[in-house]
Input
Amino acid sequence: MKFSYAFKIICLIYSLNIFSQEQIYLVDLIFLKYLPEDVSEENFLVPSLEKKDNVIFLSQFPYPEIEISPLPLNLNYEYQDLFLSIKFEDDPDSIESEEDSNLLNLIPTLNKEKSEFEVDSARIFTLSDEVKKIARSRDFRVIGTKSWFQKIQDINNSETVFIDTDFFKGNRIFGYLKLYKERFLHFSSTIYLSEEDPVVETNPYIIKGKSINNGELELNIFENKNQILLHEVSQEKKLRSGELHYIDHPKFGMLVKLTKAQRELTSLDNE
Output
């Protein structure tokens, strides 16, 4: 019972934390390509690459590199010493506490040592079930996923994020995503599908922006020059937290989901 009261108090503290700070959101994206290749006979316009400066480049959370050395083969242990038999008794109070903790974890949380616009490769992707379903389909191929936290501001102060899957099985989806808030949440996005082609040499195309970890940056979109730009799609939609939306093109697309999130409380760490 005491853990139930503690859980309610923690929930209250977390809710006060959410309302006392500027609301942040978890952004989840899935990038798709339609299969088979010749599914449509429609003629498409040649894509016109839109140039945007002062964009936000996503950063990777810098986990330390771990060097693993092989163990020596002569440990001088008897065979039976390599195994331990340990038995733990279940603590009912700890089980209840764990259940309360799991309920709290339903709210996506930005850890205090991590930043907005930072991709955390160790965090479980929220839309992993959707990725598995799509991967089993003969009609689609998942080209990549992205996930990060950010505040969403009004249209004049909102950031434009550069998104890029890199190449997967010869294809790449990249472009821009802008999330902003008016009466409702909105997103505006332009994305492109390109394909590796060894006979093509694409001219450099430089965009400027900044990242959380590296400051001001310049990026050549066509650093891999052996690629051809095939298609583009631009869409703008209104959405709510928790909804899954699709940017659609006959050849490719992107799933977008926003979820209300919270920052980790630093005060709890000092107790």
Observations:
- The radius of gyration is 23 Å.
- Residues 23-63+112-269 form one domain.
- Residues 2-20 form the longest helix (19 residues).
- Residues 12-20 have pLDDT under 50 and may be disordered.
